[in-house]
Amino acid sequence: MPLPAFDTPLIFETGQEGRANRYLPSGPALEGLLPKDALRDELPLPDNSELDVVRHFTRLSQKTFGIDTAFYPLGSCTMKYNPRINDAMANVPALRDLHPFAPDHAAQGALAVMWELERALASLFGMAAFSLNPAAGAHAELAALLIAKAYFKKKGEPQRNVVIVPDTAHGTNPASAAMVGFKVLSLKSDANGRVDPEEMRKAAGPDTAVCMMTNPNTLGLFEPRIHEVSDVVHEAGGLMYYDGANANALMGNTRPGDMGFDLMHLNLHKTFTIPHGGGGAGAGPVGVAPHLVDFLPTPVVRAFDADGKPSNAGGWRETADLTFALDFERPDSIGPMRSFWSNFAHMVRALAYTYANGGDGLTTVSKLAVLNANYIRASISDVIDVPYDEINRHEFVASAQSLKRETGVRALDLAKALLDRGYHAPTVYFPLIVPECLMIEPTETESKETLDAFIADFRDIIATAKSDPEKILEAPVNTAVGRIDETRAARQPDLRWRPA
Amino acid sequence: MYTPHTASDIEAMLRVIGVDTLDDLVRVPDAVALRAPVEVTPQLTEIEIAERFHGFAARTTAGGYTSFLGAGAYHHYIPPVVGALAMRGEFLTSYTPYQAEVSQGYLQAIYEWQTYIALLTGLDVANASVYDGATALAEGVIMAVNATGRKGVLISSAVHPNYRAVLRTYADGLDLTIDELPYGEDGRTDLSTLDAALAEQRYAAVVVQSPNFFGAVDALPAGVADRIRATKTVVIGVVAEAMSLAALAAPGTWGAEICVGEGQSFGNAIAYGGPYVGFIAATTEHLRRIPGRLAGKSVDANGKTAYVLTLQAREQHIRREKATSNICTNQAHCALCATIYLAALGKTGLRDCAALNVARTAELREKAGALDGFSARFDAPVFNEVAIRVPGRAADVLAALERKKILGGLDLGRFYPELADCILMTATELTTSAAVDRLVTALSEIPARAAARV
């Protein structure tokens, strides 16, 4: 099922000046309204008819692979089905058209959405509170590390400036640490791909600020001694941070708060079905244990009962009898992380998804995500190396290392061969500790038939790699373009069209 | 529930894996096992979900008011074609286009977005987007810090207060010091202390916003940018209302080397604050310091035009702690909406839209300013918002307007205590003359004792 290969001219290369769409009345001449030196001389943009605009972007969409196109087993990204009811709810006019500076009394429903979601997340992940402020996972990591920095400053321990990350960590972890001036200490995983509490004991000390981990880790493996690791870090005076990228594996089964994590983030665009949209917008709520609540970014939504008493404890509850306010007056807060309160349209989507599942449903979601991943693993581990061939969680890693030795076919080539068969490729070359790595995450929304077809194609590609490796090395041949000259793209950057 | 598994599927799959039950698959040590059931929402059908959200909508009453709110988030007309195209599933459900061969369409759209932003800002290059205007400012400042090795920032107090607050949040992490330039009596940045400040040679950047938070055109006067650059300090221009770029002199032409801003006005719903789309444009000199994704044009193995994410050596997934930023997810879909919007409106439509904003705001300024006791607080020319001084406290006047189902604007006292008698009012192409007249009538009817309460 290849994507179409037609060329599409740039929007700047089509149209004629004056071919305007009549969305608005004609505007008056700007020269009569503003001083001439305030105005721009020219506006070199194209005028296209609406039909030509429609065809242009329809064609571009046809050359784009989404979850809606076919199976998308991109490890670490949780490419699950994005229910359309979520978008419909985000598009309800009263919510879609609400101005962020609208007074609280005119925004009660929107505040209720935020509060209900926040309470549900707090209960589901064992945190005292979440802030919905950060715009994405990496943004939430930054918020969390700023919280840690502010916490230690207030505690009189400003010397704590080391962040410990396992060598399996996401690249954003060390990058976020650098943005708050923390040093990064990389911790080697043990032979089983896990963090060893004894190794952590050697690493943690009076300079430890935060240990950032994900569980299951990026190999898709559960860290069974996580509570011991937490104890070691806490004994050293540090905080535990949970990278929620892999939260789809454990909902309703175990909670980061119960594992000893003090801080965490969620990628609502992974676990809670917000569409990835080609790489954003996402949403990254940051959650904290009780001792860190005061440091959360501003604003937070506060609830009051009919008597005007604050009502912020406990999990989700019905909200018809509550009133809400945005609270900006939080002296210990790290301050705001972004222009306005949250990626609100995404909070609507995430809450709609929560309602579609309920607590038991979310528990089932996680179980079936784990089922699907292990089903693929068990069905291909006889034809490709699976370095940790045991019960994984929602994803697992395979390695093309021995295949490469035998045939010259690398992980990248397998990825391109999968594109030719109409699948999106798995994540390749991550995590860094597994050579020729392919990271496969099917998610729970895929049926057994889809998985069976993928397994058959994957096995066939491996067989072809062994019998006729050239065929795989040429891939992709069924895509809109072949392999792209990335060196040229980087050495002679062409990042925009220019008028002739 | 969106899981397709039947009981027999599950049984067959468990058999292949070699375990007996789903619970065996997800078993965790007792020490971390869930102790009490989680309290999340009940499980509802789609019909019930829609009922719930219509309930939330009913409690969200702002839509019943005539609104003059702006201040960094703007009500503009969005043609239905924007949503119809952007909501196509291929766009909506794709991830970051790492696999370029199956992402040519989205990569081309990003390349077109980068081109639109470069053309509108008058700069060489633009990135694929960042979270929003405030974070774009923070990232732009980090670029200047990396370019100069200095840790001071000199920013106009007429830059959006929320943007400055976010910059302070980021600055706590990076140990930056932030000093402010005051605004002057005409509503523009007061540059009288600039040269003395620059002489200290400790600023990485001078930051001004145009139109600034008071709506005033606040581009640097001729020659000022050269004086700033002569001290090896980077000029950063902020644009919180992207629509202004269709009318006002492009930041690149008045000396901004880095232009950061908010693109929500281009085809993105106001949505109680997000998601929006930040942009960063810069001169070629700063190219390798730009954070986030960049789409580039190249060729494939057969010489065919092909688009690909490029210069990835700047990014966190390659460079980890040495990356230019930790940004991973950006705002691709919001940038796509903006690109479709810009394509649909075209040069002619954008010009019309910008001109209507200026004209409607001029009408608002004139009519409100003519009322007894009311006046425009500043003289500088404005784009689509204006600070109106009212008799008494702005907060009281706004409360009185709310009782008449009008959201009259933003109480400037919220951010500038000395302007507690001023309301920032916004008019766009969606603001009718009738709405302006309703506002003016309501203002004139506010009982003098309410307005005069100080």
Distance between the termini of chain B: 56 Å
Number of separate helices of chain A: 16
- Identify the CATH class of the largest domain in chain B: Alpha Beta
Sheet with most strands: strand arrangement of chain A: 1-7-6-5-4-2-3
Task: Give me the secondary-structure topology.
The complex is a heterodimer of chains A (500) and B (454).
Chain A: H1 50-62, H2 84-90, H3 93-96, H4 108-125, E1 129-131, H5 137-155, E2 162-166, H6 172-179, E3 183-187, H7 197-203, E4 208-213, H8 226-235, E5 239-244, H9 256-259, E6 263-266, H10 268-271, E7 286-288, E8 300-304, E9 323-327, H11 344-380, E10 396-399, H12 401-407, H13 411-420, E11 427-428, E12 437-440, H14 448-467, H15 469-473, H16 486-491
Parallel strand pairs in A: 2-3, 2-4, 4-5, 5-6
Antiparallel strand pairs in A: 1-7, 6-7, 8-9, 10-12, 11-12
Chain B: H1 7-17, H2 22-25, H3 46-58, E1 66-67, H4 80-86, H5 89-92, H6 104-121, E2 125-126, H7 133-148, E3 152-156, H8 161-174, E4 177-181, H9 194-198, E5 203-209, H10 224-230, E6 234-239, E7 258-262, E8 278-282, E9 295-299, E10 305-309, H11 316-319, H12 332-369, E11 375-376, E12 385-389, H13 394-403, E13 406-407, E14 410-411, E15 422-426, H14 433-445, H15 448-452
Parallel strand pairs in B: 1-13, 3-4, 3-5, 5-6, 6-7
Antiparallel strand pairs in B: 2-8, 7-8, 9-10, 11-12, 12-15, 14-15
Helix pairs in contact in B: 4-12, 6-12, 7-8, 12-14
Give keywords.
heterodimer; A: 500 residues; alpha/beta; Aspartate Aminotransferase, domain 2; Aspartate Aminotransferase, domain 1; 3 domains; seven-stranded mixed beta sheet; B: 454 residues
